[in-house]
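Hey,
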Amino acid sequence: MEYLVFVLAMVSFAAVIFGMEVARGAREKKDFMNLLYKNCTRLNDKKYSLERYVRMGSFFERHPKEGQLDDITWNDLGLDDIFKRMNYTLSASGEEYLYYTLRTLRQNEEELDHLEDVIEYFREHPQERVQIQFSMKKLGYTGKFSLYDYLDNLDFLGKRSNHKSILLDLLFLPLIGLLWIQFSIGVLGIVILVVYNIISYFKEKADIDPYIVSFSYIMRLMEACREMEKVAVPVCAEEWESLRESGRRMQGMKRNSYWVMSPYRGNTSGDILAVVMDYVRMVFHVDLIKFNSMLKFLRGHIEDVDQLIQTVGYVETAIAIGIYRGSVEDSAKEGRKLLVSRKTEDAPEESPDKDPLLSQGKGWCVPKFISGRRVGMEEGYHPMLSDPVKNSIGAERGVLLTGSNASGKSTFLKTMALNAILAQTIHTCTAEDYEAPFFHVYSSMALRDDMGAGESYYIVEIKALKRILDAAASGTENVLCFVDEVLRGTNTVERIAASTQILKSLAGSGILCFAATHDIELTELLGNEYDNYHFEEDVRDGDVYFNYRLMPGKATTRNAIRLLELMGFDPKIIEKAYGQAEEFVATGSWQCS
């Protein structure tokens, strides 16, 4: 009776623990689903280790395509930060495909129109979006390395055969039969075979363990695809068919995979069943045998795995773009409230409800693609600025920007470049209106010395400029380029002479160049090829004020010496500097006094 009570108590205790775990899981799922419905913009709150940066570029590196951004342009424009800003993905497949998307400029409207349909469908159907996202959450990540890294390394395992393991398992049969003839010899033979199998098992297990991670991810990927297919998404009919076809061909990998993928593998909880399963694996090498058959199957279906990753990543990327659009709209609303509150403080008699600021746009637009080479942007801004000053421009030929440091030139160049890139990647521009033809985008902006290669800033810069000229000279690319302070790494005379000729070359057919410079001489020398715009500042009351507004024409103010004065430099330095500058303007030559 006491034993029965004990057993019932243990069963009851296990049931309570199990019930608590189920309840906790249900509660966590409910909280996460609420997050997806009500506050999904929090999903980009991620930590980025070096391993994560390396991993998320894996899909991009293995899928080269014409029109992809090179490393110089990506780094010049700070696109790592843009990526992190819109990374609302929940799986490695989605994260890697989003990175790939941001670096791959699409060159036709058909692709972008379909992407637009998928983005807006999930924005308008939150229930379907959340179902897909929950599947992506369960899919998750692969650890330190990308799945592609594991797939690339499959060859290191070499050819693996099950012959030895099967032969050792078959040896148990005669040894068991020997028990009826010579019991002690049969027992000794079984013990020796068991010990040998266990020792060899751990050696083999150490070799395959790193690849279990990739197998596990592929199993989860197949399950996620199966769940996605159940969600009715009419605009994804082609994607769903692709999932079905690739998933059907991958079914062979799932058969008896529990021996390898079982949750009991490596269990240390003391569960009796777990212990039994572990000893079965160690003695009979069941999981090693299944691993080898899975490995052989996988090697013949790499393209199917790639297709699953690509399709899942595409859909999750579309969802992430939709969430990003919503976050931009939220920021625009907050910005309008801030502007209204400022205006109300200045004129409290006016009602914020009637303020014209409330009729401003949503902060983003779908780009329009046109023929020719005209670029038009209305109320565009840098996507990483929380309280931006918006600018507009229409350009059919090169644009030359002048103005003092910190006046807004570089930010405007980046604003134009980023909107050109976002138009052809995520079909979403941070502007009220954007139109342009399809371009290949290059930049030469935030360069630095390459100490590793032993190259000076000037060498790095001319190499960066040469690659743009080569792209334009190929005649196969419609090039949009952005150059900040061309040839700043050399002396004034040669800089102006060489800059003039380089920028003239960048004004040829098939190329549109936006350049910023401090060399006012270029505004005259390039007057036939470039339209002049400038940014200006106001020095008053002992301080400098920038309005960051793009103005037509070249810069006319010179405040560099005035800024020295404001910073408390010796008045003699200021006086002599003014005198030299005025004499150069009057005579065209420098005099030292």
